[in-house]
Amino acid sequence: MSVTLTITFIFFLIIARFFYIQVIWGQELVLRATDQWNREIPVIAARGNILDRNGQQLAGNLTTYSVFVRPNAVKDKSYAATCLSEIFGLEMSSLYERLNEGNVSEIIVVRQADGELIEQLIACDIDGVYYARDNTRVYSYGEALCQTLGFTSTDGLGLSGIEKMYDGVLGGTDGEIMYTTDIVGNQTENTNIVYKSAVDGDDISLTIDIEIQLAAEQAIREVYENTGAQSASCIVLDPSSFEILAMVNYPSYDLNDVPRDDVQTLNELSRNSLVCDIYEPGSTFKVLTAAANLQEYINGNSAAFSPTYVFNGSRTRSVDGTTIKCWSDHANGKHSNQTLSQALNNSCNPCFTDIALALGKDVFYNYLSLFGLGNVTGIDFAGEAVGMLVPQSLVRDCDLARIGFGQTVAVTALQLACAVASAVNGGNYYVPRLLKSVISSDGNVVEESEPILKNKTISEQASSMLRSMLEGVVKEGSGKNAYIEGYRVAGKTGTAQKYENGAVAAGKYVSSFVGFFPADDPQYLALVIVDEPQGAYYGSVVAAPVAKSIFEDIIAIKNIQPFE
């Protein structure tokens, strides 16, 4: 009886094993067998082009080829190694060893080979050697916009910047050519060849205007070289939509010659500091303090100062035992008894300390939130920093006083540019963006980006008052070096001390200027930042002329006529 049970048990085990192999495991085994008897040649999809807002190509493709070998199908390995090494400049003995590795079904010999080399390869007629089209990414303007565009891997995958952000759109889907082989990998006679076509990637159009970009690149390069600065950068945007027109970070690198072998250098040069790094803005921040005050004045808040209110000429103020003073010594009547407009002209710190303290942290922090401080803007770019803002629950009066004139707060350049844009465009804070549209391979627009209103910051009335005051800064105040005869330019200078290990770093400053034009209907806004210029360091001297140069180029590019 026990023998019968044992036989029955073994029988059922065998049946169960057969069932597992045939039913449960069967599909996987079929796929494995198919894979052993079939070979595929990849058909690489063409990566989509990147265009500027006017259709100018920023990134495209050069047709090149990948060459690979199936060692088992190579009849004369010595001949194959000799030909391949001579054509592609490879080390012959190393290649020969690779061709004799029995456990390798396929090896890649070279990527991104040009067509002339492939013609030489064809002439050699080597068994087991194949080639397939791939793409070499080429960038029309080399260094221009390099930190924003980003770059791809040798396999054509987006690794940084726009190339990475929109890799799924640009990349497409590869195809293949499949055929059957014998046990050593040779193509069988009368084989059925199956062709699966590649689906090319879509093109994308950016909000960038390459002519404005190149003008900004030139201006930033010159100030970087002439001042011996650590770095210089600039962002230009359209205040009516927050479309990014130009982004410049200097020093930069050539996208057609990416320093892939030096990871540290590549990381430093490829970083888009305008989006990913923060800094203490200094006096350019006073635009936001003034905006909050004007709106609260319009709202009827008795703590706010009217445009005609005269601030006293005190040079220093003690807050929480901390002495807060102006950059000027106020000697010989400088900065004495001034209105808000004059305080902006003179960039007088104590006046903005008065405003922040008068409004109080609840009201003031509400405006900081509306202006996007302490949060990301939402731009379609990876790695955006949130800035640094003392939590409202922890802020002291001395902190609030310093925030009023741009200290004890850190922002990204993009955050500040967007905040100022909303303050001067009528109070509309949009989500900034780089993508304008997606275009299919047949030329149809399949997606178009539209402005997205995030929130309102101030009213049109307050914005109009602020624009007029900032136009005065360029006409009569610290921004005179941005003045352009016949054009209504407005803006604000900034000069911020740098800190190292919690203390002021002697002789190290960030010089900046944020400006826009026309002052009554802003169409172009530029924020220029020069980090650690040597010699002269005031934003009025270093950064304002750069903005003027960029605006003058825009005027010429767009043929903007002077006002009557």
From TrEMBL:
<comment type="similarity">
    <text>Belongs to the transpeptidase family.</text>
</comment>
<dbReference type="InterPro" id="IPR036138">
    <property type="entry name" value="PBP_dimer_sf"/>
</dbReference>
<dbReference type="GO" id="GO:0071555">
    <property type="term" value="P:cell wall organization"/>
</dbReference>
<dbReference type="InterPro" id="IPR050515">
    <property type="entry name" value="Beta-lactam/transpept"/>
</dbReference>
<dbReference type="Pfam" id="PF00905">
    <property type="entry name" value="Transpeptidase"/>
</dbReference>
<protein>
    <recommendedName>
        <fullName>Stage V sporulation protein D</fullName>
    </recommendedName>
</protein>
<dbReference type="InterPro" id="IPR012338">
    <property type="entry name" value="Beta-lactam/transpept-like"/>
</dbReference>
<dbReference type="Pfam" id="PF03717">
    <property type="entry name" value="PBP_dimer"/>
</dbReference>
<dbReference type="InterPro" id="IPR005311">
    <property type="entry name" value="PBP_dimer"/>
</dbReference>
<keyword id="KW-0472">Membrane</keyword>
<dbReference type="InterPro" id="IPR001460">
    <property type="entry name" value="PCN-bd_Tpept"/>
</dbReference>
<feature type="domain" description="Penicillin-binding protein transpeptidase">
    <location>
        <begin position="233"/>
        <end position="552"/>
    </location>
</feature>
<dbReference type="GO" id="GO:0005886">
    <property type="term" value="C:plasma membrane"/>
</dbReference>
<dbReference type="GO" id="GO:0008658">
    <property type="term" value="F:penicillin binding"/>
</dbReference>
<feature type="domain" description="Penicillin-binding protein dimerisation">
    <location>
        <begin position="44"/>
        <end position="191"/>
    </location>
</feature>
